[in-house]
Amino acid sequence: MTTTHEILFFGEVLPGHDPATTRAALQGLLKCPADTLDRVFSGERVTLRKGLATWQAEHYLSTLTGIGLKVVVEPPLPEMAAAGSAPPLAPPAAAPKHAGGAESPVPPSPVPAEDKAATITCPACGEQQPPRTLCRACSIDMPRYTAAAQAMASERTAPAAALRQSPLPDDEASGDTPLFGFGLDGRFGRSAYLQSAFLGFAAAMLLMPVMLFLGMPGILLGLALLLMLAVWGVRASVLRCHDLGFKGWWSLATLIPVVGFIAGLALLLVPGQKEHNAWGPRRRPVGIPALAGALVVAVAGAGVMARFTPDGLPDPSRIAGLASTQQGDEAAFMARYDAHRDRIVMYSLTTCGYCTEKRRQFEHMGVRFTEYMIDEDSAAEDRLNAHLQRAGITGAIGTPILEVNGQILPNNPSLSILAHHLYGRGQAQAKTL
């Protein structure tokens, strides 16, 4: 069974360390408020870490003693236990007596100078002792403590130019969280979060025309892609919470009305933690060119969607789930339709889902019509363009385009609109519409 250790602290500071500086350093490591730190330095038994392997206990012992804490490892580390259980030195053998029974005075042998030189002084508490690794007074790892002190001294004397370098070392650059994906490991800074928001907005805007003009297949495809975009957006919020030091569950606050607006602003504006945290190193900020490119894509997506104005969209009653009045529209259409007088022409595309639905509807109702595939019949396409130009219809136009008794009706008009242009309503009334 593997032995685990715990680090205990009783509020004592090693000699030669300033208590205020040690207290501030421990607060920086624990990231705890002042009242919690007061309890840590109360003098009572406090467990700083527990369940540590031997190598982890050695690491924490070196780190904590390096900032000036006098800590105890329980159970003791193997080297400490071996030092504590060393047998005492055997007493010197008694000097032989002379035959006469009188003891001759023997002066004590002087301690060689080399034995005095074979002692070391603990850099933390100043205890002099034979050469060893762990101090017998304060239990710190003396070689590591000395190395840590030298490293801190070299950092203090580093040139100012080194301080102006990027806060992220090169070895952390390879740990950047990818922008695209569905993994929840890593962190997103503010710039990466904003870039993902721009790209998600652009993708949603470009999906809307697909959903509206490809019929039922387009709706199903668009809903599936929108679901993927929603999951991707939640991932970005989770990674942004990681950057702030919070668990990803806090991203659910963005779904609460009013609170979600405030939470979204916080994710967008509050800077993340500069140092490592539980979710890894800080992500490299997104460059200005990449962020500007994402903004351009978002604006382009909005521009594409803006072309499809409400007048240019297909009739909403043709979208699944909104056809509650379809039977009434069919009855009104058939009441005015005359197969011998009314002429209906439909201009379609072979890839148009709405065209297929309109064709099936006419066939089911028994409506006589003529259909041209303008992506296969160039002459029909020329005639349609001429009709549209004469009618003054420009901009984005959806299919199918119906011609009812000479009147061009674009964007998949509903049966109620078609009924207004049948001869049953009168030619003059049809023109006013």
Automatic annotation (TrEMBL):
Gene3D superfamilies: Glutaredoxin. Signal peptide: none annotated. Residues 344-407 form the Glutaredoxin domain. The chain crosses the membrane at residues 192-213, 219-238, 250-270, 290-308. GO terms for cellular component: plasma membrane. It comes from the Bacteria. Residues 82-114 are annotated as: Disordered. It holds the Pfam family DUF805. Keywords: Membrane, Transmembrane, Transmembrane helix. This is DUF805 domain-containing protein. Residues 95-104 have a biased composition (Low complexity). It comes from Zoogloea dura.
